[in-house]
Amino acid sequence: MSELKQFRLPDAGEGLTEADVVSWKVKVGDVVKVNDVLVEIETAKSLVELPSPFAGVVNALLVAEGVTVAVGTPIIAIDVAGAASSPRPRPEPAPEPEPPPEPELEPEHVPPERGKTRMSVLVGYGVKEHSATRRRPRRVEAAAAWAPGPAPVEQMPAVAGMKVLAKPPVRKLAKDAGIELATLTPTGPGGIVTRADVEAAVRAVPAQKAPSGGDTRIPVKGVRRATAQAMVASAFSAPHVTEWVQVDLTRTVKLVDRLRADPVFGGVKVSPLLIVATALLVAVRRNPGVNASWDEAAGEIVVFHDVNLGIAAATPRGLLVPNVKGADRLGLRDLAAALGALTATAREGRTPPQDLVGGTITITNVGVFGVDGGTPILNPGESMILAVGRVRQSPWVHKGKVKPRWVTTLAVSFDHRLVDGDLGSRFLADVAAVLEDPVRALAWG
Fold first, then answer.
1. 21/227 Cα distance (integer angstroms)
2. Quick one: 185 and 136 in the same domain?
3. What gap in Å lies between CA 77 and CA 124, rounded to an integer?
4. Pick from 209, 243, 269: which residue ends a domain?
């Protein structure tokens, strides 16, 4: 006798209200154990693999890939009575009867980090009471009760507006031909749209109507949507002030070279960003008022005692700002290791949710793109962000003579509600002073 249990989409520990189902790791009939990975979801901040809270046999996948669902929505049904009666191992997925994918085609709608190992996270259900309300896109709402017998997602026909099952090369072929996958009748195993299905649809289109170009539309969801909403909210709620200064980094560049050659720093990445971060931490220590936040609801300024240093990182999924917790308490080598691990995991899409919340001040390094400078927008909830431009050799007056020196431009934006011009200027001047002469970091430390 079967005993069905539903697994509802949990709050992934970020206080969010919804997530996108990216890819199922199981199919109907699979035997799963507790903590086996069931599905990969994308929240507004990260990709997360959800492990199974039950042991049993997968009875139904209740949500299709690509659909946005609310927290609390049933996404899979598992027959827990089948755990003891089904010793069979998880069957291998049936191969799709189609030619192998073309070489050198990038998977569409699949983040490059899909194949990387991520930590599975199983958290409590429900939305936190303080969760912010977000405008929700199309989603599958939670059912009042689950009744046995619904067709598994793998057997569902294509429905307009819902992402259907198809391999990346097939999606690429359909996109290039201007064919909507949702309009096709899938003939592959498990309801998968095959290459033959797309080619048949192309042959059915009159030649004069064949696509000859046009615009590409990219759905705004996940990290991109969250970033857009956060930047708009920040730009139009906090009065930004931006100041710039050019800095002679010659001594910093020489220090970086010495540290790279020092055996103590073996195994960690040493870059000018390390010294910039150190200079920022010294400046925060001398000007603690910049490590703060404006609490509109309470009518208070919150001055943080710890410096959770955010590093803006460009990733294939969009802009992420993970942060190093308690960066002000780390020694130079530990800070280098933390920065290296932070940026590496962000670019691989493996940043855990806890590293994306709680930041107090941010560095954005636009110099890596060959950009001299810019006017950064504050990370929401913070009062200060430092932008670092490219490091280049330029003519510079040094000891009364014009010499080639390593120079960069620093730009700092701050929330003028709680950071006055003199405080912001002193902070920026202190960062510049340490970078011009890193020995000051020891003297002021």
1. 19
2. yes
3. 18
4. 209
CB contact at 8 A, 438 and 249:
no
- Write down the pLDDT at residue 116: 41
In the three-class reduction of DSSP (H, G, I as helix; E, B as strand; rest coil), residue 335 is classed as helix
* Partner residues linked to 244 by β-bridges: 411
User: Taking a C-beta distance cutoff of 8 angstroms, is the pair 172, 144 a contact?
Assistant: no
Provide the strand spans (E) within 272-354: 292-295, 300-303, 309-315, 318-320, 323-324
Tell me the H-state helices in 216-299: 222-237, 250-261, 272-286
How many angstroms from the chain centroid is the CA of residue 98? Answer: 33
Specify the pLDDT at position 205.
60
**How distant, in Å, are the alpha carbons of 250, 266, 274, 279, 431 from that of 257?**
11, 13, 12, 17, 20
* Residues constituting the chain: 445
Which two structure tokens, joined as six digits, stand for 69? 């669902």
Q: Do 171 and 284 have their domain in common?
A: no
- State how many domains the chain has: 2
* Annotation marks residue 398 as catalytic: no
Alpha carbon distance 343, 309 (integer Å): 12
Residue 342: HSE in the Cβ half-sphere, 13 Å Cα cutoff: 25
Is the per-residue pLDDT at 90 higher than 60?
no
Burial (CB < 10 A; 0-12, 13-18, 19+), residue 289, is middle
Is 80 in contact with 6 (CB distance < 8 Å)?
Answer: no
Q: Are 343 and 289 in contact (CB under 8 A)?
A: no
Residue 85 pLDDT: 52
More reliable by pLDDT, 424 or 221:
424
Tell me: the pLDDT tens digits for 180-201? 777 788 888 777 888 888 888 8
